[in-house]
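Q: Convert this sequence to C-alpha cells.
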Amino acid sequence: MKGRVIVLDHLAGREAAAMMVDGRLDDLLIDSPDDPRPGAIYRAIADRPLKGQGGMMVRLPDGTGFLRQAKGLAPGQPLLVQVTGYSEPGKAVPVTTRLIFKSRFAIVTPGAEGINVSRQIRDEDARVRLLEIAHDTFEGPGGLILRSAATEAGEEDLIEDIQAMADLAAAVLADAGGADPEALTEGDGPHALAWRDWTAPAQIVTEPNGFHDHGVLDALDTLRHAYVALDGGHMFIEPTRALVAVDVNTGSDGSPAAGLKANLAAARSLPHALRLRGLGGQITVDFAPMSKAQRRQVESALRASLRSDPIETALVGWTPLGHYELQRKRERRPLDLPEIV
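A:
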C-alpha cells in the first residue's frame, strides 16, 4: 500500500502504534506497563550520592532513579525529576532535573527562559507569525519552543496547545514540595506519542485489527530474528548484556567491491533496524572487510542516515580492531515479541 499510514492498535493488551510507509514498517511504539514511561515526572527524594560518578541515587514511588547530578543536593531533599529513558534490568531508572513539557506544537522548558521557534522552520514570514502568537499567548513558567509542526497548525489549535503545556508545567512545579516521592505525570503512551511526534500527513487507522489488516503483524514477524537482509549482503543484530553486536557480511558476493557495497547498505539501514527493535546503549559494528580508505564513505553514510532518526545517537569512532562504535540513547524498551505477538 502506497503512502503513509499510522495504525493505532493493541498487542496482547498493550497499547501500540505503527507507522507504515509504502507498505514498509517505518516506526513502532509499544507500551511497557512494567516500566516508567520516558517523560514521566516524579517528585523524588534525594537518597545518596555516588562518589566518583558525580551522580545521586533518588527514591521514586516504586523504585530508585539515577540522577547524573549531585552538586547542591543533600540526602532527604525533595526534587522534581523526569524519566529520560528505559533502564536495564536491575538498574536504576535514568532521570534528569531538566524538565520539559512536550506536545505536538509546543515545548515548555521551565528551566530555560526565552521564546524560540524550531530551526527547521526556515520561512521568515512563518517564524514571525509564530513568534507573535507565542509572545501574545505564553506567560511562563520558563521558556517556550515552537516545534516544526506548528507551521501547519491553526491559530486556535496552537494557542490551545501552548496554554495546555504551560498550565501543566505550572501545576507540576506547584507540587514540588513534599516529604514522600510521588508520580506527578505518567508520560505519554504510544497513541499519544504517535500524535505528538509523527506529524507528517498520513492516513490514521483506529479500527480494531488494524495491525492485521495493514500488514503490521507480518512486518513484526521479521523482527523476531537477528537477520536483516541488505542490498549486497546481510547483517545480524544481536543484543547482549554489555552491548549490541552488529555483524555485517557480504554473503556469496566475492567481488572486490562487495565489502564496501554491503557496508554502505548496512550504514543506511542500521538506525531504522535499531529503532524498530528498541535497542540502545553501546552499539558495536563489525563491518565487512574493506580498506581503511573506504571507512570515511561508510561513516558518512551512517552519519547521513542518523540525521532523520529521532533517537539521539553519538558516533564514537573506530576501534583498534576495526570495529565501529556508537552510543545510542535508551529511549525505548527492547522489543520482546515472543511475549506480545
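The chain is about 25% helix and 30% strand.
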